[in-house]
Amino acid sequence: MEKILITGHKIPDTDSICSAISYTELKHAQGVENAVACRLGKVSRETQYALDHFGAETPLFLDNVNPDADGTKKKVILVDHNERFQTPDGIENAKILEVIDHHKFNLITDEPLKIVADTVGCTSTIVYRLYKQAGITPSKRAAGLMMSAIISDTLLFKSPTCTPEDVEAVKELSKLAGEENYEEYGMKLLIEGTTLSDKTPDEIITMDMKEFDMNGKTVAIAQVNTVDTKGTLSMQADLEKAMNDRINAKGYDLFVLIITDIVKAGSYVLATGKSPELVEKGFKVTLENNTAWLEGVVSRKKQVVPFMLEASK
Amino acid sequence: MEKILITGHKIPDTDSICSAISYTELKHAQGVENAVACRLGKVSRETQYALDHFGAETPLFLDNVNPDADGTKKKVILVDHNERFQTPDGIENAKILEVIDHHKFNLITDEPLKIVADTVGCTSTIVYRLYKQAGITPSKRAAGLMMSAIISDTLLFKSPTCTPEDVEAVKELSKLAGEENYEEYGMKLLIEGTTLSDKTPDEIITMDMKEFDMNGKTVAIAQVNTVDTKGTLSMQADLEKAMNDRINAKGYDLFVLIITDIVKAGSYVLATGKSPELVEKGFKVTLENNTAWLEGVVSRKKQVVPFMLEASK
Asked: Within chain B, what is the greatest distance between any pair of CA atoms?
């Protein structure tokens, strides 16, 4: 039977993986048996912690969504992203059935499709809403995964992207998942996600990296959440080398690394490349030794991308 | 108080006007008192029939959504469209809060937003779904307008874009509107919309015209629904003159007029301009005297645009 591939973005974070699995379970419960949860890259340590904790399997790795040998287009549902840069290779020759997302949009399709997007902190919050609208109770596993995704995306409600619906969803899901002390679980999950000690510089800058087209400039923006920004900055020379290697390989105009202190709720920005003015103009800061402290900035989507986009006009 | 402008597309059809009014009423019922129903052009004869029948006022005419004198961005909700060509002038400097739509997508935003899109026959079907999800019963007036929009967009369920949800919505809305004989009302509405006798050629080709970017070619596609295709085709020379005048004024590569016979459920296509191959390749027909009969084609969105887009690649 022809499959429906449900996938999050490249370099998947916990939301991309957990929303793909949970939405696939919802589809199955609605009788869409050919839905398959997929991923476009390696599962992070944080995500693996959540998968292990709630007994979920790693989604199917998807290399591309090119048509079958007989020309049949793949059917795809995109969760937690919609932009071409972040979708599977070959998407231009696939049929996008649905998009479930909470990011800014850059989507061009040839045909009508189903989209559920909203300005909430996490795609899994929307997936949980869809469960409720369908009158279907998520499994313990799906509830735990959706809860994990929301905690991850909102940094346990500290991110400015967090909405009352995200908080309420975690409270309800924690009961369904049998994990009522969600704060304790959430801190463990976030700490697991922020351990950088076992990572190479190239791994650090690509753990959660996304590419953006900013009015003709190609900008890579990576983000790491940590409780030890000083330890991370002590690797600055090695990080910059890894960033410049990526710039040379991919032709980026700018590589930005956002090192977010989840306790202080602010970020160091580290920028290399030929367009640092997008950072300086965007945040009204002066980079010293390629870095600056951005007070209160913790959300790439809400507090980084829009300001750099504006600066690029 | 700052307004939230809710508007359908340029050259508004019944769905654009009725969805704007009905969704504004829903917002009011949800406590969003600053929502204002708007329109971007003249109300059609068909739409006026529905407005009069259900005692609704014509929405506010909107010339543009440029920022206020102090630079404050206008807040806009787009219904029944999402593409730049079809939105109010100045949209690039406005804040799009939401999109409610059932068309293909070509949407680029700087920030996340709420989107509810689906592959149903009419935007008002989605608006009615949102009423139900919110647990709010539409007013008699809003119910009548949403019912009218669905009948108009689906040609009383004859269009291939029509889904079971559209049919069910009309049945439920007809009761709420006190218009249980929706078939009789619907035929009156469609006949009102298809009277071309009082129209000039330029009015006929712009009644329901949309512009599309097809891989670098700018194509205008107009559609008229009629019960008298022969009478319309007897004006061919005058229609072609009006189409060529528009081509010269706007620089279109192609102007296509779809003359849909709502009884026979097919369309004559009339095409002028320098790229007629988009029609010939798209529908696998040979134009004779600039026209061809397209058996079974009644939906611009589903049966015209995708095939011409494919032919333009």
From this structure: 57
